[in-house]
Specification:
It holds the Pfam family FecCD. This is Iron ABC transporter permease. This protein has one domain (9-31, 74-330): ABC transporter involved in vitamin B12 uptake, BtuC, CATH 1.10.3470. The chain is globular, with a radius of gyration of 21 Å. The chain contains 14 helices and no strands. It is 74% helix and 0% strand. Helix 5 packs across helix 6. By secondary structure, the chain is mainly alpha-helical.
Length: 338
Amino acid sequence: MVNTTRLRPRTVALALLVLLVVLVVAVLVGAGDLGWQRVLGEIWAEVTGGRSPLSEREAAIVWQLRVPRVLLAGLVGAALAMSGATFQGVFRNPLADPYLLGAAAGAGMAATIVVVFTPHAGGWVPVAAFFGALGGVGLSWLLGRSSGGTGTATLLLAGVAVGSFLSAVQTFAQQLNTETIKQVYTWMLGGLNVSGWREVLIALPYIAVAAVILCVSGRLLDVLSLGDAEAASLGIRPGRVRLVLLAAASLATAAAVSVSGLIGFVGIVVPHLVRMLAGASYRVVLPLSLVTGAAFLIVADQIARTIMPGELPLGVVTAFAGAPFFVVVLRSSRGKLS
């Protein structure tokens, strides 16, 4: 592992270059065979005002389907990777993920209720999932505080309890209208197949605000990793810092879930990959997780939409990549989980 506490310009440039290449390739190549040279010609024509080699319908596929989908995949991947790194730092647990405090259960319950009781109001599913995720985290926080505990272990147990309860409510709601089970599970497996500019604009402001807060908080997470006593001696209030970081990470997670459904393993795989390649300091891990997470999910979505005639759920692709990596992390982190 590389040991560094500073983000080197060369590392940032390399990460951004990889992201740019991945983004361009994902726009040029898709399930519909438009020809990457012709798509490149369309982009050049759009920039220069020249004549496009694509028809109006083909150009719409590029600008109304491919481009927003690729951008949304990048936003969701960045949000989940940053949130995963933050949760791992706050809870000092290498296996913590963005859904730890009931965000997934809250989003799933809210989305299921909308699908079951208003099956023709699909446009409200992202809104319901967003507030459901925030509600799940809020309930976990209130339960943790009301139990009298102040540590992260209490908050973690509250998240488990709230997640179990909300999952039970979701299952009950599904049984009230079994005809919607397929629609619910399609959403829960994650995917960007119905994404457009609307979804990009919905998620962007929340993820951007959270990204700024988290990326400038790397030093605080490094200090918290030394222990609360050391942090307090440096004038830092550990409880307040954790609250701000968890709120920002939960906001990013809720925004991501609202437009993509539940996509697992991104928040575990990407931060650990960054640590192995660039160092363990959160001043390095958080910004690089943002860039690497975006590239990771764009690649995963590209595989999901092109590997076979029928599109695979994105959550299935990330699970195929993430599950073996999770086992490796679990084995290497055995001594840190006690």
